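Final report, closing paragraph on structural work. Over the funding period we assembled a curated collection of sequence-structure pairs, and we close with a single example.
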Amino acid sequence: MRPWHWKGVIFCAALVTTQAWAGKEVGDYQGLPEGLAAAATAYDLAQYKADRAELERLLADDYTLAGSNGKSQTKAEFIADVVAPGSKTTYLAITSQVSKVWPDGAVLGGMADVKGWDRGKPFTARIRFADVWAKRDGRWQVIFTQANTAP
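Its predicted structure, as stored:
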């Protein structure tokens, strides 16, 4: 498993302790501005369901993912990993959620425990993540993610 990849499955953007599994795979976005809350929920679901079109819409063209291995991924590289054949998230629990919001930006993050399949191989991971959101042309998009494996 490539730990930097599964940040996305976490995906993050979460605020309050949440447990998620089939049918309940999003964070709790109470208290966020309405447009940001909707975008964060859509982003969680897009990662969980490996929805390429939604990921294309919700990630900025200049998106960067900085991962545990010291390497970065572009938007295209991250999406390719999320939608790769044989990859599926089967469990996601987000805890220790935090949010910092300002008029045209936000940081949403926390801890995520994830299980699933990565290109046909089972994996389990605990990841600390932070997604940076920006409001551009009236819509919220993720512009940067930092994700690190946690003990």
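The first strand starts at residue 18 and ends at 21. The two ends are 15 Å apart (CA to CA). We thank the funder for supporting this effort.
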